[in-house]
Inverse folding.
């Protein structure tokens, strides 16, 4: 009986927690993994914001084509009198529209607060249009600029993700 008691007592004596050094090594490993994954995650978020642009530029394209079918010309007014009837739903990240004119009429400013001056390549006349979207999606001061034209060609004017 005494031998069994010593074995049980010996087992409980060998059980112990982690040392401070072991815990510090685990924390360092977790920190290194976080440092590696954060840039990848930031790039993923930037690409998700860019996905908004493809959807909205396609929507603006459809609105311009409908306006042209009714009026025989394209318009540089997104919403309001003489406009194509496009108003964004929900929150935007990018700024969309034309550099000139008024907020809520010729352009809509998104959550990233990119200045409408980056939309200077946008135009609309009787036979053609180019609508521009701009947003600094990674916060580096250089905006991502994309455009769509009357042929539904969407292209990247300035790639903020290439940096």
């Amino acid at each position: 009986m005494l031998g069994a008691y010593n074995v049980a007592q010996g087992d409980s004596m060998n059980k112990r927690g982690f040392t401070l050094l072991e815990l510090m090594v685990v924390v360092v490993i977790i920190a290194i993994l976080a440092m590696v994954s954060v840039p990848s995650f930031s790039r993923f978020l930037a690409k998700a914001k860019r996905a908004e642009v493809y959807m909205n530029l396609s929507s603006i394209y459809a609105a311009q084509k409908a306006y042209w079918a009714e009026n025989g010309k394209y318009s540089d007014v997104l919403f309001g009198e003489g406009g194509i009837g496009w108003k964004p739903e929900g929150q935007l990240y990018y700024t969309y529209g034309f550099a000139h004119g008024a907020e809520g009429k010729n352009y809509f400013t998104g959550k990233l607060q990119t200045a409408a001056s980056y939309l200077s390549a946008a135009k609309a006349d009787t036979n053609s249009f180019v609508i521009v979207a701009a947003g600094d999606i990674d916060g580096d001061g250089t905006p991502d600029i994309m455009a769509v034209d009357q042929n539904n060609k969407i292209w990247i004017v300035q790639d903020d993700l290439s940096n």
Q: What stands out?
A: The chain is about 40% helix and 15% strand. The beta strands are 95-97, 107-108, 123-124, 129-135, 144-149, 154-158. The helical segments are 2-14, 20-71.
